[in-house]
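TICKET: design request
STATUS: open
ATTACHED STRUCTURE:
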């Protein structure tokens, strides 16, 4: 864990100073660097124009535009930035909204400190993170038709790799296909599964029990 966080750079956005302090102490204790702190969505956006962090850890309930609106703006302006939401909201609907808006992970603040470190480490490696309690709630929900039943074999294999966080280029290289071919598969996958983006693709895999959280 300590190796995964060493020299990792972050921005912390939360309107509670004591929360930011706790996060800072935990992360810096394992070698991470906090580049800036923000108390609102607007301040988070401003901090991102001045710094280039590896990860933004952000609350949803903040003054001003709020975390969800800020997340949408951040994802539009910096699509490659990895954002971990740390929120007091522990319901699956809020988590799904955040992931659809571009978050790479969703952590409930009621989680133990080690779970924050685990979430940051996973997001830093380019993987998705979902709070275990929310993941369990999603798996208990009514599931749509299983992806294996509606996708072709090639589409299903591409789906599994994309759902685990691999890029189109990485999947193309793994399967010795052109990026355009993988893009075509992705278009058909989205149509058949009724999803609009990669976050929803991952959520579909989680609901189907294909991704371990």
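STATUS: resolved
RESOLUTION: sequence designed for all positions
ATTACHED SEQUENCE:
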């Amino acid at each position: 864990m300590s190796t995964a966080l060493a020299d990792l750079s972050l921005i912390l956005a939360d309107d509670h100073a004591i929360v930011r302090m706790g996060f800072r102490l935990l992360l810096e204790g394992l070698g991470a660097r906090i580049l800036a702190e923000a108390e609102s969505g607007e301040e988070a956006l401003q901090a991102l124009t001045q710094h280039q962090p590896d990860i933004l850890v952000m609350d949803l309930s903040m003054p001003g535009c709020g975390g969800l609106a800020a997340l949408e703006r951040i994802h539009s302006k910096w699509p490659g930035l990895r954002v971990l939401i740390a929120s007091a909201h522990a319901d699956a609907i809020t988590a799904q909204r955040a992931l659809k808006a571009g978050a790479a992970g969703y952590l409930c603040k009621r989680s133990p400190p080690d779970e924050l470190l685990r979430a940051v480490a996973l997001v830093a490696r380019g993987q998705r993170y979902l709070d275990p309690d929310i993941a369990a709630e999603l798996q208990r929900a009514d599931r749509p038709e299983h992806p294996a039943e509606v996708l072709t074999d090639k589409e299903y294999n591409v789906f599994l790799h994309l759902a685990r966080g691999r890029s189109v280029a990485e999947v193309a290289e793994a399967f010795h296909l052109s990026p355009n071919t993988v893009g075509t598969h992705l278009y058909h996958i989205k149509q058949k599964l009724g999803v609009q983006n990669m976050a929803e693709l991952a959520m579909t895999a989680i609901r189907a029990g294909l991704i371990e959280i």
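CLOSING REMARK: DSSP finds twelve helices and six strands in the chain. The chain has two domains: 2-139, 147-207.
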